[in-house]
Amino acid sequence: MGEPSNLFSVRGKVACVTGASSGLGRRAATMLAQAGAHVIGVARRADALADWQNETQGETHAIACDILDRDVLGDLAHDMSKPFGAPDIVIHAAGINTRQVADDVTPQGWDTTLGLNLSTPFFLSQHLVPGMKAKGWGRIVNFASLQTTRAFPGGIAYGASKAGIAQLTRAMAEAWSPDGITANAIGPGFFRTELTAAVFNDPERAAGNAAQTCIGRNGEPNDLDGPLLFLCSEASAYVTGQVLMVDGGFTAK
């Protein structure tokens, strides 16, 4: 355990963030770079990744890749190690919500949702874990959701994937924490992102969600900064297999 002033430091660590081109993934990637980590941002859209790099201070590298394609993950893990060395930290922020109601769920929509939200975090981590084991230190941060424990309309596939993230996180901890690798999940409440545009485009609905929190407002991107630094740093050395809800108390009511 480090000195108190260094407990939350990620300076010099190598961090990979999926979904870094937009939303909460972009915020996480930017924050870690500004905190002194070497950050590899991964997303499908090369142009959006370039925008992220241009707007971000710090050591960054971008890889445009469709991580839903499981066959590319081994090569991706290899490419991640080229700029700064093997990643110490991986944040699985990429995700999709098709918002198909139960009667209209398609096999393609189901498979895409479960593939990107649940399968990719496991298989990409599996490729990165050997490098973490070699260092005796690693941080895996999955993205949970309000729908990890709550059922929302049009969220049956998304909710199933996010409920799975909770158990995946516990199973990762059981498997890899003896090697110095913690695995935790962060569960955002309602934040304005591309994924939640449908919610925030309805002011009445957005206000209703804010009223359901204990704090009385929806989340701002910087509300995730502290919790993410905690889960990515030495400060959380004895925390693993947990889901940390960052939802203003939405799930407490």
Automatic annotation (TrEMBL):
- InterPro entries found in the cross-reference section: NAD(P)-bd_dom_sf, Sc_DH/Rdtase_CS, SDR_fam
Q: Which Gene3D superfamilies match?
A: NAD(P)-binding Rossmann-like Domain
Q: What is this protein called?
A: Gluconate 5-dehydrogenase
Instruction: Report which residue ranges the record marks as coiled coil.
Output: none
What family does the entry list? Answer: Belongs to the short-chain dehydrogenases/reductases (SDR) family.
The GO molecular function terms of this record are: oxidoreductase activity, acting on the CH-OH group of donors, NAD or NADP as acceptor
Source organism per UniProt: Phaeobacter gallaeciensis
PANTHER family given in the database record:
BLL7886 PROTEIN, SHORT-CHAIN DEHYDROGENASES/REDUCTASES FAMILY MEMBER
Gene Ontology terms describing biological process: fatty acid elongation
